[in-house]
Amino acid sequence: MVQPKAVEVSSTTSVPGRAEIVIVGGGVVGCSVAYHLTRLGRSDVVLLEKGLLSSGTTWHAAGIVGQLRNHTTLTRMMLEGSALYATLEDETGLSTGWNQSGALWVASTSDRVVQLRRTIDVARAQGLEAHFVDQREAARMWPQMRSEDLVGGVWLPHDAKANPTDVTQALARGARAGGASIYEGVKVTGIDVVRGRVRGVRTSHGDIECEVVVNCAGQWAKAVAASIGVTVPLYSAEHYYVVTEAVEGLDRTTPTLRDPDGFVYFKEEVGGLLMGGFEPNAKPWVASEDIPEPFEFQLLPEDWEQFAPMMDNAVHRVPAMEEVGVRKFYNGPESFTPDHNFIMGEAPEVLGFFVAAGFNSSGIAFGGGAGSALARWIVSGEPDMDMTPVDIRRFASFQNNRDWLRSRVTEIVGLHFAMAWPNREPESSRPIRCSPVHGLLEQAGACFGTKLGWERPNWFAPEGTKPVVEYSWGRQNWFPFAAAEHRAARESVALFDQTSFAKYVVRGREATAALQWLCSNDVDVPVGKIVYTGVLNDQGGYEADLTLTRTAWNEYLVVTSSGQAVHDLDVLRRGIDPERHAEVVDVTSTYAVFSVMGPRSRAVLQELTSEPLDNDTFPFGSSRLLNLAGVTVRANRLTYVGELGWELYVPTEVALEAYQRLMEAGDRHGMRLGGYYAIESLRLEKGYRAWGRELTPETTPVEAGLLFACKLSGDVAFRGRPAVEKHRRVGVRRRLVTLQVEDPDAYAWGNELLLRDGRPVGFATSAAFGHTVGSVVMMGYVERTDGGDVDAEWLRTGQYQTAIGGELFDARMSLRPLYDPTGERIKA
């Protein structure tokens, strides 16, 4: 790795007094954003780098560029970046070191083989080439590898390698050719914010007035953002690799080799090997605020003790590693995020402040596509793809705590190569956010998962059973316990603690008018009425999926999912015209939520209140304050499990007492505690959609089968209405369906390939075992690739299958819920 010299950048001691867009950070991502902004016609762009271009973490990156990811947006970014790197030299005249030599992943356990076969299914669903190879073929492709203990592998022929410094310099030259100005040796010392909006940056060489700041500062991005109160949860960890002397038989055509069971990877480097890894217990470095100055083209001290387990595994996999000399040991810190996905988007705290950082050792691979996606976001004002997995608004402020982050990054680094178990939960930095009855749930045997820091019961272990998940690709150890909770909701009654729901109050004399524009459904309803609605973007895609309860003429209680708390609050606040008399207040911590669901739920609640709960007095879709044995709660009659039931919104200070009284009454009716795994199987049988899976910014009400939640019969305008009307008029190329796998022994988790008449047509957005119907239930979008409309007739005439771990299973398609399609039970 050679330290670069500045290429075609300004060396003046002053900076312009004004620019439209200022980019902070001259690594591969910052240069990519600048490049793509100029390609979109924005030439009034200034990029500031306090050292030299690529001098942060870019210069010591390994430069491995994959293509396949488990989310279509991430794969699209990788593909766009690959296409850019392959042609950038022709455009700019600077080499990128692009080498499409492919990649081989190998497996030494049967569980890893299942994961790799699922990888192939995901590739087919996304239109990418991937091939399973047996032990003999893997050995032929990588003859220097010990292979007798392997049980298979995956060959990805279009994966590649690039030189990080060369890519950065080529992007910088392209950006400058498009009109951008690049300044090295200029440090940003502050950012000016006026009334919640960016107004300029202060630098070591003068101030720059601007409308947009793009934070691409790498491992310094957290500190840059924190200076103006923006949450960018990053923490640096040490990352190691070695470069060896020449190894016989290696050349530029040698594929990248990944051995995830050994936590290591290998890449040919000038005839030798670049070997690194991602250990399960990583070594944190320092918080963003504590990085020493200057820290340009610097490495940390060698740590052979920390590296030893990976070195031992590398020697086992490639025996030549034991004899060949090591030219250089690299210990270059890189920043990691709490969930192993990078951070992108406009900060909810400050308008005009965009972030692209925290690439978790994948900055080169993602840099080209991510820079393009963010540039389009900046120019258009909203993303044009589903950014759910990387959206900055998926994090809350508590996740910016340095101690919390330090603990989490120790675990996160290892997720690069850890087994990608379905429903895997993080173990570090927990617990942090708890329901008022958390302790009682723990005593009852709850096995907790986490969502935006909330501890939520996934299932309950019976007495004598440890509430610990034993991960596998098939039925896990909690299966019979979640089944019992499922049946309790279907046949008698269950109580679910859903306190983690995000909750807001929208109020003001123009609250109704503001929400009528934002919401697809009609919210001008009587007080006490509940409305299910989407919040759409201009393309008709879902920005949020909400339940609104009108609690007064000028007030609504808005409820959304736990993980969308920051995102949906931002959507509401941005969507309400500041000139309107309406405000949004986050009241999530004000209420606990206990959902009492099942045929006997009415009997349980009736023991605690003298107020009538019959259909005439308290119909489905209505809400009112209810006296439950001396505790006043808001009772909402609705359901996410497909049964008679009520969600009870209980003031936090009385939640413990209300819970105990509910449990006492429930005991007399056989009430059972239920967790989120049961909710998942219940809602899939009923065909209820989930945000981030069935509903995304790229899915519309027509595709999702939710036109009933759009006010199209009248002339009330709402955002996205023209797009929805167009989709309804001209038809769509994909629709959401439910599939029931015919084999009762099959088990699926979601993201499985779907086939119609033997051809890939999509993937499962969600999957779970339906304990009422007796087999796996999936939901997913079936797409028609010939350009025709996906109507009901076309859907019904196909024969459907799903690929689970490489094995095909027949499935029955339905456009109606498999369970209670007429909704009689929820209105009982």
TrEMBL record:
Belongs to the GcvT family. Pfam families: DAO, FAO_M, GCV_T, GCV_T_C. It comes from Nocardioides islandensis. Residues 734-820 form the Aminomethyltransferase C-terminal domain. Residues 21-377 form the FAD dependent oxidoreductase domain. Residues 381-435 form the FAD dependent oxidoreductase central domain. PANTHER family: AMINOMETHYLTRANSFERASE, PYRUVATE DEHYDROGENASE PHOSPHATASE REGULATORY SUBUNIT, MITOCHONDRIAL-LIKE. Residues 438-712 form the GCVT N-terminal domain. This is FAD-dependent oxidoreductase.
